[in-house]
C-alpha cells in the first residue's frame, strides 16, 4: 500500500469525479437526434468507478508540477496551465466514452448478450439493438470530437497527441483487437502468455493510455514517461486479474453485473489458469510493479496515482 | 457539365485511386489479430467508387496551388508540400474507412439486414455478427490512427484539424445522427425539409467533410473555404438524390446491391416524395449549386472537383 491517507484520495476523487460527471453531462448527446442522444447519455450515466478518467487526471497532476515551458515557451504559464487542465478533463471524458461504447457493443446479443450492467438494463435492452449499435458508434466519434474542440487554447500538438494515443488504444492493436482475441478464444485452452496478451489489449492498453494521455497534458521527460508507462502497464494488467478474482468471489448484486459468467462461457481467466491464490499473488506483484514505475519516474506528485493502484487492488466491484 | 475532358478525369482518377488502394492495403488490418484484420480488409477492399477519397484529393489539389506559407512559414516549401500531400492521402483513406465501417454496421441484421454489398456477401455473412461489429469499431479507430501518424512531418495543426473535421462528420451531429433519424423514420411521413435534413446528416456531411479535409491540407482563404463548403453541401445532397433515383431505375446487378429496397422498407426517398422527374431536376439544380460554389471559391485548380460533381450526377451505381 502507498502511504497516502485514504481520506485524501476520497476527497480528491470526489472533486475530480464531480468535474468529470458535469463535463460528461455537458458534452454527451448534445446536438444528437433525441433517441440517439438519450441512448448515449444512458450508456455513460450512472456509473462505474470512472477509473480511467481518474487515471488521466491523476497523471496530469503528476506532470503539472514540472512546468509547461516545453509545451509552448511563448505562452503565459498560467494560461497554458488552464488550457492543459482543460485538455486533461477532455481526455478524461474521451477515454471514458471509449470505455462506455465498448461496454454497449460488448453487451449486445451477438457478443456477450448481457441484459444487466451496473444494475440497470443494458443499452440494447432499453433502446433496441440498432439503437445500441449507433449509440456506441457515436460515442466513439464523440471521444475524438472532445479532444479537438472548435475554439480552444489547447496547443494543437497536445490535441494531436491525445488523438494519437486514444486511437491506437481503442483500435485493432488495442481494445478492439483484444475483443477479437477474446471472441476467438472462448472454449480454447490459452496459456498464461496468451491470456496476458489478450487482456493487455482488451483492457490494459486503454488503462495505460489513460495514464499516458494525462501525461501528454504536460511535458514529462523520457524517464518520467517510461516510469508512467511501466505504472500503466502493470496497473492495466492488475485490473484484469482482480476482475477475474471478483468474478468468482463476488455475487451479482455486489458486482452490479452478472457474476460467474466467465466460467459459464468457458472463458479462460487468471483464476481458471492459476488458481485463486496464485492469481491474488499475481495481482499483488503487479501492484508492486506499478509503484516501482512511479518511483522510477522521478516525478514528485504521484500520490494520487499510487492511491489509484491501491484502489484497483482492493476494489470489490 | 464542366468543360473538362472526360479522359483527363479518368487518367487523374485512375492514378489517385491506385495511390489510395495501395495505401489502404498498406494500412488496413496491419497489427490486428488475424480474424479481425481479415474482416477489416474485406470491408475495405474490392470496392466502390471511392468518391470520398477522390473528393479529398481533388480538394487538396485545388488548394495546393495557393502555396503553403500560411501553414508554417519557417519550413521549406517543397518539404511542406510533400508532408501535406501525405496528409491528404491519409485523410482520403481515413474518410473511406469511416464510410466502410458505416456500411458494415448498416448491413447488420439489427439494421438493414443486407446480405449483398458490391456483389459480395456482406461482412457479417462472411465473418459473423460479432466479427462485423468489431471490424466496424476498429475501422473507425483506425481512421483517427491514420490521421495522427507516430513520426511524421505533417504539421500538428493539420493533424488536429483533420481529426476535428472527421470526428464531427462521423458522429451524432453527422453520419451516426443521420442513421438514427433514418431508423426512426421508417414508415413515417417526412416532408422535404425533414428528408433533406436526414440525408444531409447521413451522407451529406461526410461528403462535405471529404472536401473540407482536402482543403485543410492547405491554407485556403475564407472565400475559398466558403465556396468549397457550398460545393460540398450541394454535392453531398445531390449524391443522395441520385441514389434514390438509381434505387428505382436500376437493377441489383448494376447497383451491386439490392435494388428497390427503399420502397420495400417503406423508407421515404426523394423519388417517393417528389416523383422521378422532379427528383431529376433537383439533382440537376444541386449540380449547378456545386459548380457555383467552385466559381465563388476563387480557386484556380477546381477542374477535378467539377468533374467529380459531373460523375455524381451521371453515375449509374
UniProtKB/TrEMBL annotation, chains A, B:
<dbReference type="InterPro" id="IPR033749">
    <property type="entry name" value="Polyprenyl_synt_CS"/>
</dbReference>
<dbReference type="GO" id="GO:0016114">
    <property type="term" value="P:terpenoid biosynthetic process"/>
</dbReference>
<dbReference type="InterPro" id="IPR053378">
    <property type="entry name" value="Prenyl_diphosphate_synthase"/>
</dbReference>
<dbReference type="InterPro" id="IPR008949">
    <property type="entry name" value="Isoprenoid_synthase_dom_sf"/>
</dbReference>
<dbReference type="GO" id="GO:0046872">
    <property type="term" value="F:metal ion binding"/>
</dbReference>
<protein>
    <submittedName>
        <fullName>Polyprenyl synthetase</fullName>
    </submittedName>
</protein>
<dbReference type="InterPro" id="IPR000092">
    <property type="entry name" value="Polyprenyl_synt"/>
</dbReference>
<keyword id="KW-0479">Metal-binding</keyword>
<comment type="similarity">
    <text>Belongs to the FPP/GGPP synthase family.</text>
</comment>
<dbReference type="Pfam" id="PF00348">
    <property type="entry name" value="polyprenyl_synt"/>
</dbReference>
<keyword id="KW-0808">Transferase</keyword>
<dbReference type="GO" id="GO:0005737">
    <property type="term" value="C:cytoplasm"/>
</dbReference>
<keyword id="KW-0414">Isoprene biosynthesis</keyword>
<dbReference type="GO" id="GO:0004659">
    <property type="term" value="F:prenyltransferase activity"/>
</dbReference>
<keyword id="KW-0460">Magnesium</keyword>
Amino acid at each position: 500500500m502507498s502511504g497516502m491517507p485514504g481520506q485524501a484520495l476520497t476527497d480528491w476523487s470526489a472533486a475530480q469525479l464531480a468535474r468529470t460527471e458535469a463535463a460528461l453531462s455537458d458534452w454527451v448527446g448534445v446536438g444528437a437526434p433525441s433517441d440517439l442522444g438519450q441512448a448515449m447519455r444512458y450508456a455513460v450515466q450512472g456509473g462505474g468507478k470512472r477509473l480511467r478518467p481518474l487515471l488521466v487526471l491523476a497523471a496530469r497532476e503528476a506532470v503539472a508540477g514540472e512546468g509547461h515551458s516545453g509545451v509552448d515557451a511563448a505562452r503565459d504559464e498560467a494560461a497554458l496551465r488552464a488550457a492543459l487542465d482543460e485538455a486533461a478533463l477532455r481526455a478524461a471524458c474521451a477515454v471514458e466514452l471509449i470505455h462506455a461504447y465498448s461496454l454497449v457493443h460488448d453487451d449486445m446479443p451477438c457478443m456477450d448478450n448481457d441484459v444487466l450492467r451496473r444494475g440497470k438494463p443494458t443499452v440494447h435492452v432499453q433502446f433496441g439493438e440498432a439503437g445500441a449499435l449507433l449509440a456506441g458508434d457515436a460515442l466513439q466519434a464523440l471521444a475524438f470530437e472532445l479532444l479537438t474542440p472548435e475554439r480552444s487554447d489547447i496547443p494543437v500538438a497536445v490535441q494531436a497527441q491525445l488523438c494519437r494515443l486514444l486511437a491506437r488504444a481503442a483500435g485493432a492493436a488495442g481494445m478492439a483487437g483484444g475483443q477479437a482475441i477474446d471472441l476467438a478464444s472462448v472454449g480454447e485452452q490459452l496459456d498464461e502468455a496468451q491470456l496476458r496478451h489478450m487482456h493487455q489489449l482488451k483492457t490494459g492498453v486503454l488503462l495505460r493510455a489513460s495514464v499516458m494521455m494525462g501525461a501528454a497534458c504536460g511535458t514529462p521527460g523520457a524517464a518520467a514517461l517510461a516510469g508512467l508507462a511501466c505504472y500503466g502497464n502493470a496497473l492495466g494488467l492488475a485490473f484484469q486479474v482482480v476482475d477475474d478474482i471478483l468474478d468468482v468471489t463476488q455475487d451479482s448484486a455486489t458486482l452490479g453485473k452478472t457474476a460467474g459468467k466467465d466460467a459459464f462461457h468457458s472463458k479462460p481467466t487468471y483464476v481458471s489458469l492459476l488458481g485463486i491464490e496464485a492469481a491474488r499473488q499475481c495481482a499483488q506483484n503487479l501492484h508492486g510493479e506499478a509503484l516501482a514505475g512511479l518511483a522510477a519516474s522521478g516525478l514528485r506528485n504521484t500520490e494520487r496515482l499510487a492511491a489509484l493502484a491501491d484502489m484497483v487492488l482492493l476494489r470489490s466491484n
